[in-house]
Amino acid sequence: MEAVIFDMDGVLTDSEPLINRAAIDGLREYGIDAEPEDFRPYVGMGEDHYIRGVAQKYGLKYVPAIKARVYAIYFNLISGQLKAFPGVRALLDQLRAHSVRLGLASSADRIKIEANLKAIDVDPAWFEVIIAGDEVGNKKPAPDIYLAAAKKLGVAPRRCCVIEDAVNGVRAAKAAGMRCVAVAQSFSASELQAASPDCIRPDIGSILPADLGLKREV
Length: 218
Hints:
The chain has helices spanning 16-28, 47-57, 64-78, 88-97, 110-119, 144-153, 167-175, 189-193; strands at residues 3-6, 101-106, 129-132, 160-164, 179-183, 199-201. The longest helix has 15 residues, at 64-78. It is 38% helix and 12% strand. It has a 6-stranded parallel β-sheet with strand order 3-2-1-4-5-6. The chain folds into 2 domains: 3-14 and 83-212, HAD superfamily/HAD-like (Rossmann fold); 16-78. By secondary structure, it is of the alpha/beta class.
C-alpha cells in the first residue's frame, strides 16, 4: 500500500448522532416526525440521500432548502461538542511521520467536511487530497469517490487502503478494488462483515500497520 484514504463521519469523529439529530429536527419543521433508525440505510451516502430518503418515506418532496436547514442546525450542534475519536491524532501523526500518502474521501459536502475538521482540530493540509461527495456523480456504495481520490493522488487503486465505518462505504472501497479496514464505530462487526472488508477493528485506535497493508512499521 502506498496511500491510506480516510472516510470522515464515523471514522475520524462521532458525527453521526449529531447529523441524525439535526435531520430529525429539520424534518420536524416540515411536519415529519422521523425516527433515528429511518436514516440508517442511508449512512455513508451523503446528506442528500440521507435526508431525501427519509423525507420521501414520509411523503415529503425533497428540496435543497431542507438540507440547508439541517446543516444550519448541525453547525450549531457541533460547536464545542464534536471531538475526534481517540486514536485519530496518533494514527495520522504516525502515518505522516513515515511519509504515507493520505487522502480523505467523504460523501459529505465540502462545507461539512471543513466544519468537521475545524471542530475536531484536524488540519485539512494533512491530507494530500480531499474529495467531497458533491464532487462525484455517484455516491457510495458506488466506487466513484475512492477512484477519484486514487486518481488525484496518482496511486493505483490496488495500492490504496481505505478506512471505513459504514456498510455502504466498505462496499464502495471494495468496488474500487482497494483494501479496506472497517471500524465498528457506527455499525456492528457482523453488519460490516456482510460487506466483506479485509479487516475489522473495534475502533480506529485499534488499527495496526499490518491492517493497512503497509510494508514498513509506522
